Amino acid sequence: MYTWGDYEDIARKVAKVTPPGGVLFADDHVYFMLHRNPPPGLEFAYSHKLTLPAAQAAALHILPQSEVDRQLSSGRYRTVYICEDDETYDRLGLPKLYPHKEEIEDCALFWR
């Protein structure tokens, strides 16, 4: 269970390693605390769990999980704050894409 202070600490760490204009993948609270807009398709963190026809998903700015994974694996983001397990990090190739990693509670911050 996180407190507001925990979220502030996380946001400070993310801000420290993400330059202005650097593309960021993070949880909703990080975008909120940093006064940043999420990249298109990531405006609502759980939307990728919806299964919609492609045209409807595109109209609603919803990315399927496969596209979210593809973007993560492509190195599109300057900084990634993600709460998954090591298997997922490895499957997405994050340790190879990002030279820096910091564990934050049950999550990880990757950056370059």
Summarize the structure.
Helix content is 43%, strand content 14%. With 112 residues, it is of the alpha+beta class. It has 6 helices and 4 strands.
General description of the model:
The chain contains 6 helices and 4 strands; from the N terminus they run αβαααβααββ. The model has no long low-confidence stretch (mean pLDDT 92). Strand 3 (100-104) and strand 4 (107-111) form a beta hairpin. It starts with a helix and ends with a strand. The chain has a 4-stranded mixed beta sheet with strand order 1-2-4-3, covered by helices on one side. The chain is an alpha+beta fold and 112 residues long.
Structural class designation = alpha+beta
Report the mean per-residue pLDDT as an integer: 92
Largest sheet entry = 4 strands, mixed
General shape: globular
Q: Which strand-content bin applies to the residues?
A: 5-15%
What percentage of residues falls in helices of 4 or more residues?
40-55%
Low-confidence stretches: none
Gyration radius, in Å: 14 Å
Strands of the widest sheet, in order across it, are 1-2-4-3
Number of strands: 4
Which sequence of SSEs, written as H and E, runs from N to C?
HEHHHEHHEE
Distance between the termini: 28 Å
Helix count from the secondary structure assignment = 6
